[in-house]
Amino acid sequence: MARIIIKKGHNIQISGVPSLDLVNAGQTVSVAYLPEEFRYIKPKLLVNEGDTVKIGTPLFFDKKIPDVKWAALGSGKISAIHYGQRRVIEKIIIVVDKNEEALEHAYYDHQEITNLTNDQVKDQLLNAGMWPLIRQRPFNKIANPRDLPDSIFISCYNSAPLSVDLDVALRNRRSSFQAGITALSKLTEGKVNVVVDENCTSDTFKDLQHAETHLISGPHPAGNVGIQIHNINPLTPRKVIWTVNVQHVVTIGRLFLKGIFDPSLIIAIGGPGVKNPIHLKSRMGASIQSLVTDRLHDVSHRMVSGDVLTGSTVDKDDFIHYYNSAVASIPHSDKRTFLGMLHPGSSKSHYSLTHTYFKFGTSTFPFSTLQNGEERAMLPINTWENVLPMDILPNQLYRAIIANDIEEMEQLGLIECDEEDFALCSFSCPSKIDVGNVIRQGLDMLEAEV
Asked: Which residues contact 37 (CB under 8 A, 6 or more apart)?
């Protein structure tokens, strides 16, 4: 067991933190896949508009790795398949039936799962269309089932602003969580590393079998799996590590215990634009409309699928993304404060970068979409270094990526990075540089070379 203390970082004090209450969102009218959100795949359809599918029916597969399929997130009729340029699949929408059916697979008790082989677990996940739940580092892409990972990481600490509370999300789900851990342990000869907030009191993470539990404390991005990997089992060339979202571990566990793909998901609805921030019982791929109806203030706002630092902009007609378990509403604003740069700290109407470095106050702030400036010349004054808890030189790495110097990128440790780990660098940057986006550009270049 490792005990990690993260000192660099910052917990953004944004208002609209979801309460710990959990309510049922009701049945969503439709669910959808957005294949473009899965990096480096070439999707090939297995269904057509008008087809009727069950939960778990394969909808498409990856031409590069045909064994990897994506299962339907709902039972019903495929109402639309949207295409982009060059017939790229953008969206697959399913209108959900009132009485849903699911494809059935083999199921086991806990002892039987313990006795399964690597191939049996792998085949179960591939046949159920649930392999995309497993991602790999480097590149944060879908894992290749032909690989043998050095280890598997599961972050049980959501430190990002407005993210789902895992104590709420995993309440009364210990059996499924343990089953998922046991199944995942068959996919590696190394360890399944479960990283838990040191202050967590949930019984779900106590005395887990077939896993090694680590404790972590500190501000965001302490909960990012990339930060945890960096401190416990750092990536090196030719090393592959797999990661799984904590709620998806429960989904995997239910597959082995019940023999079905259960797309249930606890989703946090929060942000300054939400009337009553709360946790909802819903499902993967749910429509945003079904989640936010009658929950938003009557103001112009930006909807975000995922946390506010790394999520994607969506509207009410869109759907929550595959790996997301939060939806945030941020009021839209383009009105800048006169001489706002002269404010020495924070007030009820201003959130200064002083917060980032000195962490004044504990009150929350009603953020808006106002950026307070536009991108300008980079100022190398350690703003990025102050919020990045990694043994990485972000300034030099940024310059290497801009220069398309792949060899320099590798030497500076790009292989350990993901854009979510640099989100606070973008937030605190006085030059308004989207550092995370540049990191992703570098990763795309490196992946193409590999």
From this structure: 312, 321, 322, 323
CA angle 230, 233, 237 (to 5 degrees): 85
Q: How remote is the C-alpha of 141 from its chain's centroid?
A: 12
Q: State how far the Cα of 280 lies from the Cα of 33, in Å rounded to an integer.
A: 20
Nearest to 383, CA basis, from 432, 343, 324: 432
Q: What is the pLDDT at residue 347?
A: 47
Please tell me the number of Cα atoms within 13 Å of 239 on its side-chain side. Answer: 14
Three-state DSSP class for residue 52: strand
Identify the CA nearest to 28 among candidates 354, 268, 265. 265
H helix or E strand, kind and range, residue 136:
strand 134-137
246-258 and 118-127 helices cross at what angle (nearest 10)?
Answer: 100
Dihedral over Cα of 220, 389, 7, 206: its sign = positive
Question: In the chain, where does the domain assigned CATH 2.40.50 lie?
Answer: 24-96
3-state secondary structure of 124: helix
Mean pLDDT across the stretch 309-320? 94
Predicted confidence (pLDDT) at residue 421 exceeds the cutoff of 90: yes
Asked whether 265 and 247 are in contact (CB, 8 A), the reply is yes
Question: Angle 174-185/246-258 helices, nearest 10 degrees?
Answer: 90
Strands 89-96 and 30-33, bridge-based pairing: antiparallel
**270-309 pLDDT tens trace:** 999 999 999 999 999 999 999 998 899 988 889 999 999 9
Domain 24-96 has CATH 2.60.120: no
Query: Is pTM beyond 0.90 here?
Result: yes
Local structure of 180: helix, strand or coil: helix
Q: At what angle do helices 118-127 and 174-185 cross, to 10 degrees?
A: 120
Peptide bond into 221 cis (omega under 30): yes
Where on the phi/psi map is residue 46: left (φ > 0), alpha (ψ -120 to 50), or beta?
alpha
Query: Which among 318, 310, 365, 323 is positioned nearest to 343, based on CA atoms?
Result: 365
